[in-house]
């Protein structure tokens, strides 16, 4: 087990920064005037009630949608102009796995799709780190929800850059062992200077992760 996470020095350049950010979905203005930063080494927990706009904010950060107003920058560049970028990883609600492929093939496919082809050994080791060593060759359609989530999250285990991870409800369907394994990945990432912006309806292990919280219910 890794030691509790120590937040970075404030001098580190932010991986993500938002100013005057506003978001509209349909005819609803979800938030406006939002400003925040996520710096290297930080784990940031985005909170708020159902429908408050957490996923919408992560989509802005991932460059999958444009803000109604204001700006959101990844490494100083507008997020919406750099949706495909090796300096960040986005894992959404959906696992995006192929039912007909095995766990190994599905993870290989995901990695290639995101421009991160990996050796068979690296893919195996990533699945092992998520506790899937016994299920490597199983078809995705035969896996439980928690096992599918583990395959999708194994994508993080091949990363070794201090990049930005944007994770929407990554703990969904995980049991205590899966949560612990994911926390190990998050802590290792923060320790190498990477940053994490995540949502979770489950309470986080705040003692280990020492997350900084952004609560949309307290924002404009
Ligand atoms: N495609 C869409 N078109 C119109 N409105 C949408 C669309 N997607 C989401 N919304 C609305 O935007 C609001 C924010 O949704 P969002 O998914 O960002 O919330 P959330 O905070 O992630 O919620 P939850 O905690 O339930 O996951 C909701 O009121 C939702 O109904």
Automatic annotation (TrEMBL):
Origin: domain of life: Bacteria
Main EC class the enzyme belongs to: hydrolase
InterPro entries given in the database record: AAA+_ATPase, ABC_transporter-like_ATP-bd, ABC_transporter-like_CS, ABC_transptr_haem_export_CcmA, P-loop_NTPase
UniProt domain ABC transporter: residue ranges: 16-220
Entry keywords, A to Z: ATP-binding, Cell membrane, Cytochrome c-type biogenesis, Hydrolase, Membrane, Nucleotide-binding, Translocase, Transport
A Gene Ontology molecular function term of the record: ATP hydrolysis activity
Annotated GO biological process: cytochrome complex assembly
Record EC number: 3.6.3.41
UniProt cross-references to PANTHER family, sorted A to Z: ABC TRANSPORTER I FAMILY MEMBER 1
Name of the protein described by the UniProt record: Heme ABC export system, ATP-binding protein CcmA
UniProt organism field: Methylibium petroleiphilum (strain ATCC BAA-1232 / LMG 22953 / PM1)
Lineage: Bacteria, Pseudomonadati, Pseudomonadota, Betaproteobacteria, Burkholderiales
């Amino acid at each position: 087990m890794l030691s509790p996470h120590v937040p970075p020095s404030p001098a580190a350049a932010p991986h993500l920064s938002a100013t005057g950010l506003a978001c509209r979905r349909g005819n609803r203005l979800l938030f406006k005037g939002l400003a925040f930063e996520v710096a290297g080494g930080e784990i940031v927990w985005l909170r708020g009630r159902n429908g408050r706009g957490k996923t919408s904010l992560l989509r802005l950060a991932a460059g999958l949608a444009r803000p109604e107003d204001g700006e959101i920058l990844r490494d100083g560049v507008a997020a919406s102009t750099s949706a495909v970028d090796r300096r960040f990883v986005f894992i959404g609600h959906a696992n995006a796995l192929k039912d007909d492929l095995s766990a190994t093939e599905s993870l290989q496919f995901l990695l290639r799709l995101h421009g991160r082809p990996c050796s068979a050994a690296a893919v195996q080791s990533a699945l092992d780190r998520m506790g899937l060593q016994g299920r490597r060759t199983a078809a995705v359609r035969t896996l439980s929800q928690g096992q599918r989530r583990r395959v999708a999250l194994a994508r993080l285990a091949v990363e070794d850059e201090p990049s930005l991870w944007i994770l929407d409800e990554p703990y969904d369907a995980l049991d205590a062992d899966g949560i612990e394994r994911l926390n190990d990945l998050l802590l290792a990432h923060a320790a190498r200077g990477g940053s994490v912006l995540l949502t979770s309806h489950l309470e986080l292990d705040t003692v280990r992760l020492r997350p900084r919280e952004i609560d949309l219910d307290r924002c404009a």
